[in-house]
């Protein structure tokens, strides 16, 4: 976090090239977040680019004492994703759903079993209502605290807890419906 | 248990996904373009203000007033009331 603040100060002082450090440090997280809501790589890239451009334009308004820079970026990403989802029909946002898995040194059977497990989790997550999915992604994947999610979503901690709980039960139901129990 | 490890692995992989090659370059190009746009917009605004006669008179009047105020401030040091 302190490292981010030091770089932000450099950018604000006029060292535009230093912004690249922030992009390279957070691009995977922003892209990973966008991917949970938008299936097409081109949409994810557009959103991620808009997030960083918007962050650059509004960098002076970022307050390090209220949120981590990564959380601030996720808040921007969340808004951009929701805007795009509101603008376009769900069908228009479909496309290349397949997420490339890294090369696995294990036996093909073990790798296939895990890939199937991941694909089923992806499918269960994709089927969650948007509000629940947002909270689940922020809490489980990005490990944000309930208070941070509450600030980001503009709701109380109680509401975040309830959405997260509903998301987990729904995910479990879908998983069990598909034939197995989900962990966590 | 395998599934617990797979679930943790799924979370780790989905948390961070590599963007397409050249993503950072494209962002920096967009940032550079935005910066040029911002600067040229500022320059255009200043030129527009300067091209208006009344605004030129206003700016000169303000500068003269600031100068007189500063002068009066310096003179006031030597004036005994």
What is this entry, summarized?
The complex is a heterodimer of chains A (184) and B (81). Chain A has helices spanning 2-12, 19-35, 41-57, 69-87, 108-126, 130-141, 146-153, 157-177. Chain A has 184 residues and is mostly helical.
What does this structure look like?
The complex is a heterodimer of chains A (184) and B (81). Chain A contains eight helices and no strands. Chain A is mostly helical. The radius of gyration of chain A is 18 Å and the shape is globular. Helix content of chain B is 84%, strand content 0%. Chain B has three helices and no strands. Chain B is elongated and about 90 Å long.
- Topology of chain B as a string of helices (H) and strands (E): HHH
Q: Judging from the principal axes of the Cα atoms, what is the shape of chain B?
A: elongated
Using DSSP, what is the number of strands of chain A? 0
What radius of gyration of chain B results from the CA coordinates? 30 Å
Report the major sheet of chain B: none
SSE layout and pairing:
The complex is a heterodimer of chains A (184) and B (81).
Chain A: H1 2-12, H2 19-35, H3 41-57, H4 69-87, H5 108-126, H6 130-141, H7 146-153, H8 157-177
Chain B: H1 2-15, H2 23-50, H3 53-78
Summarize this structure as a short list of keywords or feature phrases.
heterodimer, A: 184 residues, mainly alpha, globular, B: 81 residues, 3 helices, elongated
């Amino acid at each position: 976090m302190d490292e981010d603040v030091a770089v932000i100060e450099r950018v604000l002082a006029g060292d535009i090239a230093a912004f690249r450090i922030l992009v390279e440090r957070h691009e995977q997280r922003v892209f990973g977040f966008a991917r949970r809501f938008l299936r097409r790589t081109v949409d994810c890239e557009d959103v991620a680019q808009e997030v960083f451009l918007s962050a650059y334009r509004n960098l002076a308004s970022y307050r390090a004492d209220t949120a981590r820079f990564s959380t601030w970026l996720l808040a921007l990403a969340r808004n951009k994703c929701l805007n795009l989802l509101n603008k376009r029909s769900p069908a228009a946002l479909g496309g290349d759903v397949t997420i490339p898995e890294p090369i696995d040194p294990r036996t093909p059977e073990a790798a296939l079993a895990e890939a199937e497990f991941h694909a089923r989790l992806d499918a269960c997550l994709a089927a969650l209502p948007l509000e629940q999915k947002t909270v689940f992604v922020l809490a489980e994947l990005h490990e944000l605290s309930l208070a941070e999610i509450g600030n980001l979503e503009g709701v109380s901690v109680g509401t975040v807890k309830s959405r997260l709980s509903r998301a987990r039960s729904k995910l479990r139901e879908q998983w069990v419906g598909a034939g197995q129990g989900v962990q966590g | 248990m395998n599934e617990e490890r797979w679930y943790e692995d799924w979370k780790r992989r989905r948390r961070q996904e590599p963007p397409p090659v050249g993503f950072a370059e494209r962002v920096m190009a967009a940032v550079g373009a935005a910066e040029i746009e911002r600067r040229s917009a500022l320059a255009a605004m200043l030129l527009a203000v300067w091209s208006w006669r009344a605004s030129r008179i206003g700016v000169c009047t303000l500068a003269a007033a600031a100068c007189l105020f500063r002068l009066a401030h310096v003179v006031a040091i030597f004036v005994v009331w």
